[in-house]
Task: inverse folding
């Protein structure tokens, strides 16, 4: 018959090895996201500087930050712009330079917190 402490030790080891697998997959997922972003940038017709310029003109402000993000599987530039209306999150199409969305950061945070509750 198996000793109870031996069973506990085996179960503990299996649990820890499972945690190691989950931990190891996080860097893999981040590396995959990085590869997707690099591929999207290589295919973009509009550069980050152009996207920042378009966003600043659209909301009449100055950019605070900009990055490439994947929105519903599609690459977009998200530019945070300080304007008279507050900080605006402006999404710019990587292929056309068109403004896809411009919302205040406060409204965007409210929408995200509402989505998290659903």
Result:
């Amino acid at each position: 018959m198996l000793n109870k402490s031996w069973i506990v030790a085996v179960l503990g080891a299996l649990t820890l090895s499972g945690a190691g697998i989950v931990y190891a997959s996080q860097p893999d997922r981040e590396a995959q996201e990085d590869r997707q972003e690099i591929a999207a940038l290589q295919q973009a017709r509009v550069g980050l500087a152009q996207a920042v310029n378009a966003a600043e003109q659209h909301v009449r402000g100055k950019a605070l930050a900009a990055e490439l993000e994947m929105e519903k599987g599609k690459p977009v530039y998200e530019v945070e712009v300080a304007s008279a209306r507050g900080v605006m999150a402006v999404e710019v199409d990587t292929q056309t330079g068109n403004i896809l969305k411009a919302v205040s950061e406060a409204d965007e945070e409210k929408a995200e917190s509402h989505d998290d509750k659903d």
